[in-house]
Amino acid sequence: MTQDRRSFLKTTTLAGAALAVAGCADRPAAASSSPVFAAAPLSGVRWGFIGVGARGSGHVDTMLMLEGATVTAICDTHAPSLKAAVDNAAKKSGRTPQAWGADGDANAWKSMLASSEIDAVVISTPWELHTPMAVAAMKAGKHAFVEVPAALTLEECWELVDVSESTGRHCMMLENVNYGREELMLLNMVRKGVLGELLHGEAAYIHDLRGQMFEVDHGTGSWRTPHYATDQGNLYPTHGLGPVAHYMDVNRGDAFDHLVAMSTPARGRALFAKANFPPDHKWNAIREWKCGDLSTSLVKLASGRTIMVQWDETSPRPYSRHNYLQGTKGAFGGFPNRIALDVPAEELPAGVRAKMKPDAKRSNSHGWDMDMKPWFEAYDHPMWKKVGEVAAKHGGHGGMDFVMLWRVQQCLMKGKPLDQSVYDAAAWSAVTPLSRASAEQGSAPQKFPDFTRGRWRTTPPLVIEAD
Ligand SMILES: NC(=O)c1ccc[n+]([C@@H]2O[C@H](COP(=O)([O-])OP(=O)(O)OC[C@H]3O[C@@H](n4cnc5c(N)ncnc54)[C@H](O)[C@@H]3O)[C@@H](O)[C@H]2O)c1
């Protein structure tokens, strides 16, 4: 029996026991009992885009590079952004996509979705539009690919799941970080048992984005800043959490069970507004910034394992997603990448052994190994080996954006399941409403709904393959 299979069965048994105690389905069973959804293969994919601002314009650009992908329609209510994306597509592909929304009509996307020339839609709009647009896309027969977070409330999470199941359309949240070179390598290492049995993970999105407040009337800061005034909890949980959920086989043998959360006081946004905008500016008119600067959640899994999830887009501090894993054989940490193992020398990659004293019998877990080169050589994910070089040259965020869309395109054309299911979109996004509820209730535990309706116990781990 392979390591993958063994550890899957092991966590399945553990998790099954926990489920009996916790109680299961919050909703009636779905019609299909297959845990892994795959749609019929497409000979080519005709893509529509809703929202081509900072993020969506990059998705259009990447899609234009992919074999079998055609950009057929683009919608944005901001005429200059729409024109720039349409012109870019026309120039690079020789085909001018249909343009929607140039007159500023906020409902133009609905007309676009009626087009029979679209197979799949990429949604890169402000957060509150994600679920309504993804749901409408699926109901119009299109596969939905929606930016992070996929949903803002538990009701929206369920709506995505219900509509994906009833329409037989994919709904994937575009969590690009799962396709970073480090994250893919770590997933591969975990599967090969390098860290032993996983016990704990740490995930974060720590990124000082106060500068977005200068986008007052248009752009990311114009719609994102008001969320800091009115919301609470972790508003952007999935960048760090997505990869950790994959390492831990969440929804594929294990499941998020409950979380507790707490937030710091909210200070940074008011200070930044005062320091950078006139006293009568709208940011200074906000009487209370409700959202604590740093949110910390602790997630307990059905297997008993734990994940810490942090979020802070306000404090002055260097970027981090933590990307930390503790296993019974050692630990891996990100930002900066480092590894510490307590294993016999013969279990280490040749490049690591070459740096050890010739008579050393074991690795030393009391110090970090910061040299990742031999680890990449030994454990780079097959997908990264195949397209990583091209991705790093062309794609945003170090190549992860390219690998993600390339992989999506491969899966759609081959009729394979996607790496990130609608259940992942729902469970990862659910941290936002649950952390908010916990923070508002003195850190009271909040139960995760079981969006898979119990099928996480029989869903196999993600396949590690090149394409
Ligand atoms: N995965 C990542 O690494 C990553 C990075 C940045 C942003 N994002 C996500 O991408 C999304 C977009 O963020 P952004 O920074 O590009 O914001 P943005 O403001 O630059 O772009 C949003 C676009 O949506 C358009 N829009 C708004 N309402 C619309 C409507 N009714 N119909 C059509 N178009 C409409 C706007 O005109 C704008 O061009 C957000 O959800 C954000 O969280 C993800």
The biggest sheet, with number of strands, parallel, antiparallel or mixed sense and barrel status, is: 8 strands, mixed
Distinct compounds present: nicotinamide-adenine-dinucleotide
End-to-end distance: 24 Å
Specify the structural class. Answer: alpha/beta
Based on the coordinates given, report the CATH architecture of the domain at 178-337 and 372-386 and 403-457.
2-Layer Sandwich
Record the strand order, biggest sheet: 13-12-11-7-10-9-8-14
Oligomer state of the chains in this structure: single chain
What share of the residues does DSSP label as strand, in percent? 15-25%
The number of strands is: 14
Give the CA-based shape: globular
Sequence-ordered SSE layout with sheet pairings:
Layout: H1 3-22, E1 45-50, H2 56-63, E2 69-75, H3 79-93, E3 98-100, H4 108-113, E4 120-123, H5 130-139, E5 143-146, H6 154-167, E6 171-173, H7 181-191, E7 198-206, H8 220-230, H9 238-247, E8 256-263, H10 268-276, H11 282-285, E9 295-301, E10 306-312, E11 324-327, E12 330-333, E13 338-341, H12 350-353, H13 373-379, H14 382-394, H15 400-414, H16 422-429, H17 431-440, E14 446-447
Helix pairs in contact: 5-6, 6-16, 14-15
This protein binds nicotinamide-adenine-dinucleotide.
